[in-house]
Amino acid sequence: MKLLYLIPFISAFIGWFTNWVAIKMLFHPKKPIKILGITFIGIFQKRQVQFAEKLGKLVSDELLSFQDIESKITNPANIDQLMPQIDAHIDHFLRVKLAEQMPVISMFIGDKTIQQMKAVFMSELKDLFPGIMKSYMGNLQRDLDLEKIVIEKVKGFSTDKLEQILNDIMSKEFRFIEILGGVLGFLIGIIQVLLTLIS
Fold this sequence. Notes:
Blueprint: H1 7-24, E1 33-35, E2 38-40, H2 43-63, H3 66-73, H4 76-101, H5 103-107, H6 111-143, H7 146-156, H8 159-198
Antiparallel strand pairs: 1-2
Helix pairs in contact: 1-8, 2-7, 3-6, 4-6
């Protein structure tokens, strides 16, 4: 009868152990092992290429699209933030650089003329920037395949690297799954004991 009361603890251990094994099997064994004609290998090792492809598509389609980047950098508010720096650069060019390169012309350009020229340049640049940035993003999208880059990077990860990344992100969740297995196993064990006593 005393052995009957050990059932919940045995069930708890089995529940914890099976969940622990299931988590370990995500990455282990790292090399294929044949047991009774069945080949065992970690789930991530087996599915690394598919994982890389899915992640690459997710990043390029959902997380980091060129359309989102383009809308940000062509946003008038963001362009306005660049204007003071450009204004300062043009001012320096008209007052200093132009005087160095073309001293004769600079003698006929006073402060009022510089301000007028600067206003014209700034207005033109403000109209020009969105088109330039859109054109640049179009070229960048053709030259830079985000999906391919992510796929190649993830495919090139060692299994140790993938395991470390996943453990860094989900170590608490893995621990919770292990404990949950033990708790559920314990509860099932108690139910078995109660059913045995009732019968």
